Predict the structure.
Amino acid sequence: MSDSKIVKLVDESSNRSSELPLISGTLGPACIDIGTLYKDTGHFTYDPGYGSTASTKSAITYIDGDEGVLLYRGYPIEQLAEKSSFLEVAYLLLNGELPKPAEFATFEHDITHHTMMHEAQKNFFQGFHHDAHPMAMLAAAVASLSAFYHDDLDVENPADRKMAAIRLIAKMPTIAAACFRYSIGWPMRYPRNNLEYVDRFLHMMFEVPSEPLQLNPVAAKALDLLFILHADHEQNASTSTVRLVGSTGANPYASIAAGITALWGPAHGGANEAVLKQLKEIGTPDNVETAVKRAKDKNDSFRLMGFGHRVYKNFDPRAKIIREMCHKVLAELGVNDPLLDVAMKLEEAALKDDYFVERKLYPNVDFYSGIIYKALGIPTEMFTVMFAIARTSGWIAHWIEQHETPGSRIGRPRQIYTGADVRNYTPGDKR
Ligand code: ACO
């Protein structure tokens, strides 16, 4: 993978230099391999936020932010969104190829038969305050899986790694639904093996003892699509967190729990919850102009949630797909949501405003996903949990890839120290 091309970096003050090879992947810009830079020149590199830094090689997902391209294992997201299902996409992310029918049947069977939570884990929930945020419960419950399955937690063993992937993808909806039901005081539901992945989740979320639940195919289709769109996104903050924790040799459940906490932040997966809160605050289309003005004001910390992306500087291809789905779902479910009017006015106003156009701030996937979740009856606090269910497939695919890569090292960035120079300790009475 190393190109014959070399970048030469000379430190003129010390006359030390480093010859740095270029590494190319299948697609995307070549990277300068700076592995020998410190040894050759005595310098580190500085890139807070990792705007110019590739942290790993990976064969899972490719993004071209300028062209608005997203590929899972080479397949365009538009094709997967139209033709595939979330579970098939999860198989693809994990295994690198689309499954043959028999392979998919085995995978689906394995997932279906690992959906139950350990009975003792159910008691775990009773310890949470009744109004605990579902993301707090989710992170704790997923970390606790390592306390239930410690017998097959050898991270060096491929069979154990595979089992962890199956368990995580299978149990995530069960745990997520338990978080929701605990927060509203409903009895937890066992997973139904006769239902498919997304229907099973909707059943665990919304079934009540007093009346049968009519599962809505429109809701299931929309949720499946959202799960596909959220399944992976290369080295984003939460996936990088999973890899950093994974690099220490930590078990998969601990690594994924760390990813969940990273996802929670409003600059990342928490944005879908923040979008809804912001649309509610804006309230009516008449207030959109003021909101846009505030977002542009450098003295105001207010940002338009659901706009902008670190990587997509053209458009977010997921947002294009989801925008269409959003209108379809609202029409088919007969939802007339005034927040959608606010959202559409906001989208229109921002897209023609010079500030947003110059900075290439387009609506991202979270801008629309929140509105769809709301239409499906999912409460705002659960939005990031929904994201986590889908992203678990990507996280665990990356965690496995990391462990399958020979020569992986613990992640350990360096720093530019800006604190006090060396000084001597002064006794208390001399300070
Ligand atoms: N509203 C108003 N201004 C914005 C916004 C926004 N949503 N996003 C960026 N800007 C402005 C910044 O103020 C900055 O302006 P300047 O150049 O005049 O200083 C410029 O655009 C570049 O912004 P950065 O913060 O440097 O962009 P970065 O790539 O670091 O941040 C991020 C990306 C975090 C997504 C940012 O756009 C943001 O906070 N958006 C809102 C939160 C959001 O929707 N997050 C979801 C991301 S998608 C996901 O995780 C699934």
Notes: The chain has a mean pLDDT of 93. The CA atoms of residues 116 and 191 lie 6 Å apart. Residues 158-184 form the longest helix (27 residues). The radius of gyration is 24 Å.
